[in-house]
Design brief:
about 550 residues, alpha/beta, Chitobiase, domain 2, TIM Barrel, 8-stranded parallel beta sheet, 18 helices, about 15% strand, disordered N terminus, binds acetamide, binds zinc ion
Amino acid sequence: MLAVLAVSCAKPQPQAFQVIPMPADVTVTDGAFCVKGVAVAVDSALDELSQKAVGRFVSALETATGAKTKSGEGGISFVLNASLAPEQYTINVKADGAVVEASALNGFVYACETLKQMLPAAIYGSAKAKADWVLPYCSIQDQPRFAYRGMHLDPCRHFWTIEETKRYIDVMTAYKLNRFHWHLTEDQGWRMEIKAYPKLTEVSAWRNGTVIKKDWGSNDGIRYGGFYTQEQMKEIVAYAAERGITVIPEVDLPGHMVAALAAYPELGCTGGPYEVWTRWGVAPDILCAGNEDVYKFLEAVLTEAMDIFPSEYIHIGGDEAFNEEMGIPWDHCPKCAAKMRELGIKKGPMAKHYLQNYVTARMQAFLNQHGRKIIGWDEVLEGNLAPGATVMSWRGVKGGIEAANKGFDAIMTPNSYLYFDYYQGQERDKEPFGIGGYLPVEKVYSYEPFDGLTPAAQKHILGVQANLWTEYILTPEHLEYMLLPRMCALSEVQWCAADKKDYARFDASLDHTFAILDAMGMNYSLDCRGLIGLDRQPARTPEQMEEYLAKKDWGW
Ligand code: ACM
Ligand code: ZN
């Protein structure tokens, strides 16, 4: 008996199969293949970026196992298989080795991430670790459900360095996301260097203090800001591209432009003066739609943006252009009035939407002439949206459903499921201060993007994205806490067929993901394990919770 035990304990045990997002088809059988000091064979037909991706995997394996790999057959082979789709891959592990097949960079990147998640979590770290460095015998065939699998980041309300942004891209890579929506312009700060308009970085990138929490009259008195040079943004584009991720920049227009107006007040309806905004919300001041210099400005900005970002899509914002309570400058502007007359727009509640439609369509035509397409927040649907635009549904799912029913492509980013600035626990006194809402990881996981859509309309859903606005997020530790593990739940919404999703299986896999995130040095929330907030305080008992909730107003 003892002898049997000793033998079985000596046998290396593969990590339990806890890959997120769960691959489409997986068969795991008894047995394990040792990869410490393994031979690696890379098909010379792989393109340069695919070879580089494999190289990163091999280097992680060597670091974590502390053993050099050899080149040659009989270990792990990476093979080009042109019959697979660009994001598809297969992995077969048997006694005589592991064979990985894909046709393009994304397939190889995802195969490497699946291999890493099948290994001990230390493969994601930067130190040698003692562990069972074996892959389970398995046969995997995998490809994503949606082509667009996005994650957004707001570097305007609070600024994230190039290194912090790369870490964000690293964790997106680990969970097989492929679009990084970079929200680069805002009322509170302009972050994109534009050579034709140098005051955007000299003036618009800096604000004179920031409101404290939601005390709207307050200001912390600390000058705040920053921007990315064009070289830095190109560095992010290249870094993401090596990982199969396309960066989609957003130039939010005609609203959310106060920072630009502070530098170029002549582009606003009143001529200013304006200040880079120091509080949150919907600012009343926007670009004047009746001034040709505004279009000259936007075309110059978009021209430089297109030079930095090779993405098929450019996001032109379009959200929250109008603050009804604070007044709409377009209603009192002779230039806007003249433009409305020229366009035959009649006075009335829809007039401002038709004028916004004109601005959107003009930018869309300009970008189309340069071979690009637009994405706009769902407000662009109000009035008449020109064909060919893609709608990003954020005010719940209804904008996306309406867009798809009208024949527009849509990307689903509903705040009801995918706004990662919302609280993930109900014990707000233990959470870092936030905007509001309640979005636990299980609710993110429960999102089904085709709900409410006919089969014909489903074809217009390009994919799914979560958004991370940073009004109340001041540190990378807090940013990562809001992102994780909700982004892991998002990854299954984006990747897995609906019938492959299973919250109990996902939840059981989270322990391995937490070990991976620890190895990566990423912070994450343990709310779903009953440890609440950045300092992971124990959750209340159900009775204590009832008492706590009864005392609070849990609305917005
Ligand atoms: C948005 O959250 N204003 C798109
Ligand atoms: Zn105007």
